[in-house]
Amino acid sequence: AQWKFALEEVDGSVQDAYAEAFKKRIEEKSGGDVTVNIYPYGSLGTSTQLTELVANGALQFANASPGHLGKLIEPIQVFSIPYLLPENDECTKKILGSSDVLYDSLSDEFENQGLKLLTMYPEGEMVWTANKKVTSPEDFENFKIRVMTSPLLVRAYEAFGANPTPMPYSEVYSGLQLGQIDGQVNPIFAIQEMKFYEVQDYMIWAGQQEFTTTVVANADFYDGLSEEHKQLVDSTVDEMVDVIFKTQNQYNQERLEKIKASDNAPEMVHLSDEQRAPFREAAKKVEAKFVEMTGEPGEKVLNALKQEIKTCEQSM
Ligand code: 6CS
After folding, report:
1. Stretch 96-113: mean pLDDT
2. 76: CB partners within 8 A, 6+ apart
3. In the chain, what are the domain boundaries?
4. Does 189 sit in the ligand 1 pocket, CB within 6 Å?
5. 271/275 Cα distance (integer angstroms)
6. Bridge-based pairing state of the strands 144-147 and 202-205
7. How many Å apart are CA 249 and CA 254, to the nearest integer?
8. Ligand 1 nearest-atom number relative to CA 8
9. Which of 156, 110, 184 has its CA nearest to residue 283?
10. CATH says 2-315 is which class?
């Protein structure tokens, strides 16, 4: 069998590291029975288009990040509520890898769209890059910030006082360069590999959000797999939880050093707890918006996730 796995990120990214390790394990364990072909971001289209290609069976696997899934699977936007996920990374890893909320109720929503939710993993803390020093919601006034295409992200950055502009990943660099947008938000490894730091003066840590992604499969493809192949996919996905957690940490650390060592490196700004406070306060409004958008099912997901976070944090 030949399986196609498409990425929302370029060669050398965190998603690429995942797919490469997945491929290696699958090919070895299947004894050459299965080959996995990886398609990095670019030729096949935007994140939204990749999700469509998996849903209609043209692709077997792809990454599909909540930041772009919000129109198709509204409640997955719970992962885009700022300051919601645990501060403890181990809890984030645990919840994304094995949460009941995620793999019971939310996976049904994926199923309804022809998608099998295989796993979810973190890719690192999201950092703002900007052409001015933003330390308060007031600084965000008239500031055009690019966000991913999920509707809740527009609400989130409005609540933070900015003018959010949703656009695909591939358009961000030129948007920054041409001044159509003033800033954007992404994990450090992505800021480095997409060269956003070259056209921005500041990198700003506000601690508001972990970047999360899902790996989805075409649902009919997955359901139709032999027991042996299903086991192959499931066991590999399980093994990958720790592998990718370590890799993304390493990539983000190494690439921060690269950015710092570059000519004209952006100024690194770490917001204090006091400076973060108004953004945290604004996040409550985003939570309310989420409930308004997604209704009772969304509210249930939100409350159950909060409970899981609390339980994990208390056990650490
Ligand atoms: O900003 C984005 O659109 C993208 N950022 C990352 C780090 N991965 C995929 C996503 O589409």
Report:
1. 93
2. 66, 69, 70, 106, 109, 214
3. 2-315
4. no
5. 6
6. unpaired
7. 9
8. 9
9. 156
10. alpha beta
